[in-house]
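fwd from M.: "can u put these together and see what the complex looks like"

so here's what she sent:
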Amino acid sequence: MGVMKRLSGIVQAKTNKLLDKAEDPRESLDLSYQKQLESLQKVRRSVADVTTAKKRIELQANQLQQQADKLQQQAKAALGQGNEDLAREALARRAALAEQLTDLQTQHEQVAGQEVKLVDTAQRLQTQVDSFRTKKETMKATYTAAEAQTKIGEAVSGISESMSDAGMSMQRAQDKIDGMQARAGAMDELLASGALTNLSQPVDDIQAQLDKLSSTDAVDTELAALKAEIGASAPVGELPSAAAASPAPAATPANPEQPAS
Amino acid sequence: MIVRILGEAQYDVPEEHRAALDGLDTTLVHAVEADDEAAFTSALLALTAEVRRVGETLADDAFTPSELVVPFADATLAETKRLLADSAPSDEG
């Protein structure tokens, strides 16, 4: 069976759950209207949740940026004191932060996309609620038993299907947010601890916390640039050892959970 | 026939386009069965584009059930598989 037909059956099943099997079709109109109102409330709450998640990401990105800037200054200061190892350490951490920042930007785009969609969904539902409120009264007024089963039944099914769709959209947004919460929590802790910019803290701890993001090539480049910038005493021409180091690390395998779009 | 694209809108699609939509749907089914994300993405794109092209958007207050339902236009393969697996027991009786 095709995807469209199967999905239709699944939506239908969800819709059936929403339908009250009222004895009088006219009653089912009122019940549907009540459910619509509830559904609209839920979507609005969901929009608020998504907005909160988006703001949290923005806040984290700001904090990350501040810490990255601080590490940059630390690297500069270290190099000014001739402590190249410390400068390298600071830059390595800064590079790891830059990757985290890129991640956050991706998440931000996703959440913002969900926000737009849910706002649309809320608007659609609002239109439907407004329209249904008057329509159901007309239907009740012109009610005849003969056409009640079909006409009202269809309207109620149509309404319920829209609510199912809205429910699925909400679930979708919620799933996306849930996936981010755990990581966001860990990031908050790391940021709050100040460990990132505490250069006396062992590298291993931080590195483990940042999921061992390696960017050594970038660090070498930045170190050289920084040296040139502050006119460090050592000539920039040859960097010790690092360039001759190990072959390029294997690319990290793509996370299968990540959408490939 | 009435076709819904999840999270988007309902469309009234003239009967004569049924075969074409079925064809695109079959491509989508193959992509799901083959677990081929790239094929899935392009098949879903083609299907949603066709529904929007040949269908007429129903007003939000049309209150009509849909015969066919298309996944969220930007759905991933994994997400769609979960959705299809979610054959919740229908409350019969």
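replying to her w this: Strands of chain B lie at 2-5, 9-12, 56-57, 68-70.
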